[in-house]
Predict the structure of mannose-1-phosphate guanylyltransferase.
Amino acid sequence: MPEFKPRAKFAEECHAIILAGGSGTRLWPLSRNLLPKQLLVLGGELTLLQQTVKRVLAAFDPSRIWVVTNEEHLFEVRKQISAMHSGLDGQVLAEPLSRNTLPAIMLGLDRFIGGNDKVLAAVFPSDHLIGNGEAWIEDLVKASHLAARQRFVTFGVEPSKPETGYGYITLGKPLDTGVFEVDGFVEKPDLATAEGFLRHGSHYWNSGMFLFRAKDFLKQVAKCQPELWDWWMAREERPLVQGYRDIPGISVDYGVVEKIDNIAVVRAGFAWDDLGSWEAMYRLGVKDENGNVIQGDVLAMDCRNSLLISQGGKLAAVGLEDMIMVQTRDATLSCPMKRVQSVRSVVDALKAQGSQLVESHPTVVRPWGSYCVLEEGPHYKIKRIQVNPGARLSSQMHHHRSEHWVVVDGTAEVEVDGHARVMVENQSVDISKASQHRLANPGKVPLNIIEIQSGPYLEEDDIVRFEDVYGRVNK
Amino acid sequence: MPEFKPRAKFAEECHAIILAGGSGTRLWPLSRNLLPKQLLVLGGELTLLQQTVKRVLAAFDPSRIWVVTNEEHLFEVRKQISAMHSGLDGQVLAEPLSRNTLPAIMLGLDRFIGGNDKVLAAVFPSDHLIGNGEAWIEDLVKASHLAARQRFVTFGVEPSKPETGYGYITLGKPLDTGVFEVDGFVEKPDLATAEGFLRHGSHYWNSGMFLFRAKDFLKQVAKCQPELWDWWMAREERPLVQGYRDIPGISVDYGVVEKIDNIAVVRAGFAWDDLGSWEAMYRLGVKDENGNVIQGDVLAMDCRNSLLISQGGKLAAVGLEDMIMVQTRDATLSCPMKRVQSVRSVVDALKAQGSQLVESHPTVVRPWGSYCVLEEGPHYKIKRIQVNPGARLSSQMHHHRSEHWVVVDGTAEVEVDGHARVMVENQSVDISKASQHRLANPGKVPLNIIEIQSGPYLEEDDIVRFEDVYGRVNK
């Protein structure tokens, strides 16, 4: 990767906190709890997180970029951002569990605030789409000047439609060209109100980005959120993450921003979309001559103004108009564009059924690579396991199943009950119940093995870990 | 299975020919060339072929029932009808390739015409839905009396709507209650014409069933189709199937029925539908309180009057109205009910792309059982192979791939280069390139094995067969 140089002088006194811990499922079935929106490629070649990182790298030195995620996504986040810049590998912070945006930002601040009273912090969501990176940097520069004068800066987007799903910023008196004081916030207004906002030009969409002096921010936390302040102050005795379970989950908007009065809003010179629904994906996608956005293995006949995506199997669509069809290997969503908000209800219904379809894709990402369940029978389960070059699974044992491994691609290092061997393509090994075993990829290309499990109980929790390079030993 | 007794006296002089060689894909993606409509379960527990056989068994002795199919479907047809009555196993006739209905009927006639001038033949499509079996038998009895008086009998269904996709029979003068002479045939009229037919009661739908005196029928073939007559007459020197490749493909309607004048039509007392489209599947399906027909793993929210079928993966449908969604493991069809005829265009487009999706499902039925490709990679292919109890695959060899077999269920008898062994669950065997090998299921329950193929070329045609109980040795 090319080394990025910080291009903006303001960034010498500013750190970037990228929030990558979200777990929304508004883009189900593509997004799942274990693979949320920011980790998806939604057009182009980079995930939304990677696009965010790329943009931030154009302004900030890697050593001043902090990515906060939670443990469930840690390895995937690290993989994605390392691919953008090797210097980012150590800049990832993992929450033990999700506590909303305010604690996540504080986790980031903890890494760079030190004794520097002047240091600035810029906060970026990782799951929004932003166009025109030049203007975005200019707006950051503008904001840094305001923050140096102790303003808490938000970034507002001029509405182009009466959107009812966004938060709005109420403009106060102008401070400068494209800069206003903030008179308040309105969360998800009704249509009439949103239409009024659009007509009067009195409100901007809240982009979720912030820039502020770190010390000023913490002062506000001390004032508005005493519980979090206590947690923060205890960090001299124990790392912040250790107290994470006991703190309240609260958003930076609700917890701080909406409670203070010296806020400014910079009118965004950049294009912005929160990609909060399939409708947004459609709106921003490249259309064919019939107004369709089509991705993947799709056969469309006489379709108009529809979003047609397949990441698993052929999708044959005939005569659809204003429809959304999104297909993955294990689930398909079909709904009219105007019903796009109902995806939430679908996900809720699936959750209520305890469906795995909300949780993960058939392919599950692990620190060492990924696995995909190819088929399950009453007494067997067949998985394809991909191990990254150099990666090593935990040393483990199962009480209720035996396993059979066949290498189909790459080289495996297998250890069974203390006996090690190297296996190449088409070689296999039996691992009987209660044997201690371990799998690694000593090679330079991904290792693919097929695992055939047999036994009366085949769930993921029948696993006793003895040693794990990723710190997952059973406690 | 219980033994069925022929219940109708007429059937002592009559044989039944069931036509089961069709390969339509109007119900794609459920129907494929290798698994056409008649072989599918479309509601209930029996396939359409099995429903047909069950109905015919209520009137005919098994020894007088002949099922004509083509070689591609032979083993599946035999399996399905044997499950209905063990006596039917030897009653299946296989065309080497499809030549439409007239040659198929002659293939059936060949088996029972002998020297009996009086013998009757009843011809039944195997892919239609028929209700009220009692009335159906009464109509056959009525037809048999007409046929004995040398009438060629068709069965007409009173139209209930101006259907443009069916063939119509023009009624002539009445011969008896519910029996008319036939003045002609109209194939697929336009809507105005079909509406006129409905209004005037002058036309019936052609059900595709026929009953006639075999000898009279052959006289007509001699007159109308000299080429087929020559082929028929040559059967003293060689079996009919041997000349099959050289004869013209022609339907019984076009080749004979529409060319003769002593035809009668019996008004059907039974319910009939040709199930020629997803619209018919919807119309005949059991509706929920919102008018939806739902089968399989479907989550429907606020849907109305829609057909929602999943045989692979979750189908989440929101706010659909008058829509068809049919999902299988490898393909999904989505189209408005009124565009149902476009399925044909979808299939044509897929054919033009050389898509395997028209040909077969991921699970492919074989004489010995079935296999399903679970995953393919650049140098490997993973299959689940199911072998029926007592079945035995051909003794074979591959030039370009090695194979690895793991038993996951049941007992396998494996022979590799002359060495035989019995394998049980979780045991495995390597079969290297160019080894002669064979797999059988000596047990009483299905055998499931996972086959992992490795090699540079993994297509089905890399197979040299040495011996095969199903007669598929390479020539």
Remarks:
- The longest helix of chain B spans residues 133-148.
